[in-house]
Design goal:
about 200 residues, alpha/beta, 5 helices, 6 strands, globular
């Protein structure tokens, strides 16, 4: 949000850069199930207008931390009107009727959802493999496909490949798999955050 206020970049530029990275590398990484390019560009346009209007009006009020920031959602998290497969091939046509609170909170704070990313079937498994749908690949080892780890394999892969600045994963039983990529993990619960 600070860079947007300073005018060094805009939400439109941020979204376009992420979409270009997804186009360039996701064929190898396979992190994304669905990309919401059209919607993300529209939301980025609205966010950019809001920033411009605030600056023109002389407002110095801080923007929410996630305002205009592109993010991805693990494909067990519902977005109204979008398919949630939960990593299950039989759910390829399951359209969500409502948006999950975690997604709605990010959207309400101005975050821009770029799409849904891979998970193991019903998010039950620690290695990131999925026999029924194509699994994400660790971006640090595309020549010899290595696991992304955890059920949040797509979330880890898309952040590690720098296609998005942040992604939502879940931690039901095991750690979120960013340790497979030597990345920072932010967690809720008693162990608030740690560097792995």
């Amino acid at each position: 949000a600070k860079a947007y206020r300073a005018g060094t970049t805009t939400p439109i530029e941020a979204v376009d850069e992420c979409l270009a990275e997804i186009e360039a590398v996701d064929g190898r990484i396979r992190a994304f199930v669905t990309v919401f390019a059209e919607e993300a560009r529209a939301e980025a346009g609205e966010a950019t207008k809001r920033i411009g209007g605030a600056k023109a009006g002389g407002s110095t009020a801080p923007l929410p931390l996630i305002f205009g920031v592109p993010f991805a959602l693990k494909d067990i998290i519902d977005v109204a009107g979008k398919v949630t497969t939960a990593g299950c091939a039989e759910r390829k046509n399951h359209v969500a009727s409502a948006t999950a609170p975690v997604a709605q909170n990010l959207i309400d704070a101005g975050g821009i959802c770029l799409g849904k990313v891979k998970t193991v079937e019903f998010a039950r498994g620690g290695w990131g493999t999925n026999e029924h749908m194509v699994a994400a690949v660790n971006p640090w080892s595309t020549d010899v496909p290595l696991t992304c780890g955890g059920s949040s394999s797509g979330s880890g892969a898309c952040v590690a490949s720098l296609t998005v600045p942040c992604a939502v994963g879940t931690d039901t039983v095991r750690p979120v798999p960013l340790f497979f990529f030597n990345r920072f993990v932010r967690r809720n619960g008693p162990h608030r955050s740690r560097e792995l």
